[in-house]
Each structure stands twice: as C-alpha cells, then as structure tokens.
Here is the input.
Amino acid sequence: MELTKWGRKFAFAGFLISVLFLFFWILDDKFNFFHLPTSEEAIRAPYNYSQSVSRAVLQKLTVLLCPPVIVTSFVGMDLGKTANLILGGIAVASNTVLYFAVGMLFGSLWNGVKRSKSASQV
Here is the structure.
C-alpha cells in the first residue's frame, strides 16, 4: 500500500513537471520569450549567434527532468504542430510512468529503511 502511495506522488510530480515544460516550450515557440533571431536575421548577422544562458539551462533541465522528450523530439523534428502536440502528450505520459517507477523504487527503499530501523530497536 505504501509503495503505491510513493509511486502516485512521484507520478503526479512527473506529470506536473512534464506538463509545465511542455506548455512553456509551446508558449516560447509562439511568443519568443528569449528574443531569438529568425533564420534570416541569423544569416545576415555579422557575428555568430549563441543562445542565452537561461534558455540553455532550461533546455538542459527539460532533458534532465523529462528524458522521454529526447526521443519524441527526434521523431517529431520535421512534423507538423499537431503531430508534435501528440508526441508531447506521449512524452508526458511516458514521463509520468517513469516517475511512477522511480517512486515505487523509492518507496521500496524507504520501507527497507523503516524495517531495518524497527528491527534494530526491538
């Protein structure tokens, strides 16, 4: 019972993390939060463009906290918006399952620690 409790908590956290990153990157694609140049502007620029540090950190956090995004981004690289939205949903679902598994593992380790503590106290 306690294992599934930890699994559900972790799965909920994984779902929230995935959805927040998904919506952030969708909104960034629409509103250009980091003021990235278009391809035409980047070609005409007399210097090499490098992305801002905050955007690079957010990209690394996305890959670190949502590993299924790596696979779905390679699959959906040249697909349309609808296909990428479906792949985003698949990434959210698979990340939720991944976090559930991590939560179950954490719950089993936590139960082992509790059992060893109670056995040593008796």
